[in-house]
Amino acid sequence: MRTWRMRQLLIALVLFLLFFALVGLNIKMGSVKMPLGQALIPNTIEHDILWKVRLPRLTAATVLGGALALSGFLLQTFFGNPIAGPFVLGISAGAKLIVALVMVFVLGRGFTVNSKMIVSAAFVGAMLSMAFVLAVARRVNRTSSLIISGVMIGYICSAITDFVVVFASDENIVNLHHWSQGSFSGTSWADVRVMAAVIFVAAVTTFFLSKPISAYRLGESYAQSVGVNIRVFRILLILLSSILCACVTAFAGPVSFVGVAVPHLIKAITRTSKPHIVIPFCFLGGAVFCLGCDLVARTIYAPMEMSISSVSSLLGAPVVIWIMAGRVGGE
Amino acid sequence: MEYYFRAEKLTVGYNGRPVVKDIEASVKKGQIATLIGPNASGKSTILKSMASQLKTISGVALINDTPLEAINPQRLARQMAIVSTERPQPELMTCGELVAVGRYPYTGKLGILSDEDKEKIAEALSLVKALELMDRNLTEVSDGQLQRIMLARALCQEPEIIILDEPTSFLDIRYAVEILDVLHRLATERKVTVIMSLHELNYARRVSDLVICIKNGYVMELGEPEAIFTEETISRLYDLPAGTYTELFGEL
To answer: DSSP character for B1?
Structure first.
């Protein structure tokens, strides 16, 4: 028991150190050099870049990364499946599609879009994909079929998004192309305020579900027998995971594999599936993961940027293979 | 209120299709009632319905004269615990954590365990002689150990009634007898009502106050073990060829 506690404290310490190191690197590194002394003097280019570009961007990576990991954790709880995640199940892609449609439609008529509108559109899209995945899950009970149908939904939505984006040649939509590939770039403080507010509420609610999630590990009937209201609980899982995923997609586009890889890694290193521990660690882990990925994405070919998904897939997809290999080996 | 649990014209089944019809049974506080009968006769279906896990088709099951469906689920969780045939073995969960799930109805919003809860968990584990498994991962215990852990979880829920489906399967004779002994002590000392199904007839005979025989979709016979464990009744229940009963139970 003691050593277990110590281990978790140590992991928390390491994750926080990594987090602060990555925050530091994200401030320092980039296409423009950032001497800190200069950056603190107002009205310099460095000052502007730090306060208007890098800080909001790294805050977004932190908050959205945490949200993605939580979204994945909730979906894994819901489906009782370690490979479930917002990207794998096509929920990110559904959100992306509806956001693209709304943006093309609204911008095409000369109106501007605000972040609330985009978040709402993303939520609608996430729920639509979710409805489809649930319908499939009801018919087939096999893990592989569920994942395959999710991946296919993802492809279909992405394809339609591409058609829409390329078809709409409006200047504003140039940004859209970049966003639809997944990126944290161009985040403003206004965006950060909206995402932080939504994600804060969703994350705290998730933490307060620790108790039923803990009981749900024994399966539905045992959870019900100790007093978990299964209907309400399942609806909450769906809503929360969709809100979290929608919020990420609205601001950063689809970001792949964070939702699957981070919860798995966190459980593996903390050696527990206790939600009271896994939930906060997942948030922190997701933040660290995305800060790291974004650092690579924007510095490796600077001043050119890679899409965040390219980096997160490279790191996250092997974890999925690892999970599957572990399953097969264990059986 | 003489009877703790009653079933009145209870018909149970799946999706509106009855499996067992018109069950009439009454169990007093602190009694052990055991369902016996051939495989697939619907014993599990009855237990699931009594545990409020399956919608009943008609009739009513009452606890303390209150219909089961009228009891608020959170309250029911303090009155009734179940041990089904499901054997969950989630990864990275310790036996202690599994038993702690039994404290769910008593803990606060976040489910943080108080010292009292921790005592109850340790007590339940030692009652099933599994205290040393507390910090062991569930994936590292045997089926028999898991079954005892599941029972400990039900015990620390402090129920007035426990419903168990085949609690002795997977157990070797020593642990099976110990589990039945624990149930017997709960019934006599703490006045917990026990309703369960058993395959092993000799156990059913030894431990039960009431035996309910299920066959062909109906309660074929119901009564004290002395009345049920006769060559005539048991042979009829299991369609035994003449002479088999004496061969099997002659020594009892």
So the answer is: -
- Domain of B35, in residue numbers: 3-86+160-249
Chain B: closest CA distance from residue A324 (Å): 14
The enclosing domain of B244 has a CATH number of: 3.40.50.300
B157–A208 CB contact, under 8 Å: no
pLDDT in tens, chain B (252 residues): 578 999 999 999 999 999 999 999 999 999 999 999 999 999 999 999 999 999 999 999 999 999 999 999 999 999 999 999 988 888 899 999 999 999 999 999 999 999 999 999 999 999 999 999 999 999 999 988 999 999 999 999 999 999 999 999 878 898 899 999 999 999 999 999 999 999 999 999 999 999 999 999 999 999 999 999 998 899 999 998 887 887 777 654
**CB of A276 within 8 Å of any CB in chain B?**
yes
Report cis status (omega within 30 of 0) of the bond before B38: no
CB A247 within 8 A of CB A122: yes
- Roughly what angle, to the nearest 10 degrees, separates helices B173-189 and B143-155? 10
Q: Determine, yes or no, domain membership for B130.
A: no
Contact A217 B90 (CB under 8 A): yes
Give the global pTM: 0.92
How many separate domains does chain B show? 1
A214: exposed, middle or buried (C-beta count within 10 Å: 0-12, 13-18, 19+)?
buried
